[in-house]
Amino acid sequence: MPIPLQDKSSVDQIRRRFDSDVERFSILETGQQAAMDAPLVLELVARSAARHARPGGTLLDLGCGAGNFTLRVLAEVSALNCVLVDLSQPMLQRAESRVRTATPARVTTIQSDMRLLDFEPASFDLILAGQVVHHLREDAEWELMFNRFHEWLRPGGALFVADYIAHDDPGIQSVMLEGYAAYLESLGGPSYRDNVLACCEAEDSPRSLKQQFDWLAKSGFQDFDVLHKNALFAAFYAKKKA
To answer: Which class in CATH covers the domain with range 5-239?
Structure first.
């Protein structure tokens, strides 16, 4: 039986897990290995985001972890002001130390649940959200955050999301879950597979790409598409009208 949304892990429980897992999120070459195609997604997001960045612009990295997505974008466009946000202070400290070596521009860190953030409209040229929005719970939270993404972007700015997703059709969801389980077992065996899947069930509440694209359109984005998709993982972009 799936865990009801109200019984999923709390923000504090998720924060404590990430506090103790900094090293695993600090490997730029592989990215987060539990996410399928992580190196390819890092590359696609970085190169695509760089096409929408300008030197001196401002990047917001939500759920920045140890800073991998920002570091890859900075390898393409170095002079970006960076705002790094994460629940975990140890993650933020690692991200800040790495990012400061990669850009001469301003680096700001904020320890926060993304639902509590308050930025001025049109504050950012780029928003990165890597493996973070699947922690949202009720549909209203998802819709609110997509509205904020649109509001926080400058005209012509772009949102890049790489995340764990779901499929609306139960049969297809089952097929995709079987594929992900096999991938995890190939990485670390049955015990690793079971631990990761249990963590996903306890912590995550992903939505389908269709549902997320519906929210993008409702929030005002007119230009959005898939960058990559494999089983239960996808990367996509959305541009705010210039």
So the answer is: alpha beta
